Request: fold
Amino acid sequence: MTSILHFILSLVVICGLAILASNNRRGIRPRYIIQLLVIQIGLAWFFLSSDVGEGFVRGFANIFQYLLGYARHGTEFVFGGMMEGGLAFFFLQVLCPIIFISALIGILQHIKVLPLVIRAIGTVLSKVNGMGKLESFNAVSSLVLGQSENFIAYKDILNKMSDRRMYTMAATAMSTVSMSIVGAYMTMLDPKYVIVALVLNMFGTFVVLSLINPYEVDKEEDIQMNNLHEGQSFFEMLGEYILAGFKVALIVAAMLIGFIALIAMVNGIFSAVFGVDFETILGYVFYPFAWILGIPADEALKVGGIMAVKLVSNEFVAMDSLTKIIGELSPRSIAILSVFLVSFANFSSIGIVAGAIKGLNEKQGNTVARFGLKLLYGSTLVSFLSGAVVGLIV
Reply:
């Protein structure tokens, strides 16, 4: 009963905050929102509480464990004994597998499997979310290809998109995560929560966007996803994806070094001046939101602090913070927080998404940059919604 009350309260707060920022309240269509919420709850129950769903999650997680094992062979060949602990452990064990997963995604794209999957799932999504096929395809391609690579698929039609449609496209990219990085998450979080978050975020994005940015599609654009890397040979494509994966690993490593150092410095300054560190202060700011989601009151301060760290830095810094206190949290708190952390909703993503689009179309890139904070606002609400749904089930 308590879980239901917390879910209802969470839903009221999340929907209220979304409507508060809505640019077209009269255009909100409750039928699609209710439909998507029911699907979210059903999927969360299926993956977390049913034998079949739990078996599927275990199987999917095992596939990634095998892939991470294969990735380890390549890393060991280059770095040898450095794999076992030491200063480079995180980069080698957590980030280097991104290179191998990126290569696999490139192969599936090259042999035309991914375009078929994206079109099939996108078409089904468009039937239940009340949005266009373009928005639905984008939700799936963002999940598979990632924030930057994803928009290449739409480069020929970016100039035809309205501001509202661009907001939806960019917000979707921030609310999901790339499959190439999922294996890295699974080394830090329980794999089942990573998988559940991937699915819930996809549907939660449409719930929040239906409130913040409702509109009707007048014309569907033709999407030629098969032309993403047209004209490249197999090995040209493979080299490109391997280098792209390495670039992502280096970017994540650089961001971690910078953000962790800055947070440590700010914590030191706040502790010296105010007698309390910065993360604790952020914890108080996010405390009520953590409690609303169903986090026990005696754990909400710690959980709220990690939620805030994820927002101001990135999900890897927050996941690292979670691993340090995981023994102090209840299974319910771990489940809700883990799902909350699996998204690209943070300040640095604003620049990544806007920059990726600007590289393809300067006008639309500037458009996305202008509503950057609103992008972060909406994608953070998606994370809260996914956490709320999990809190109802666990």
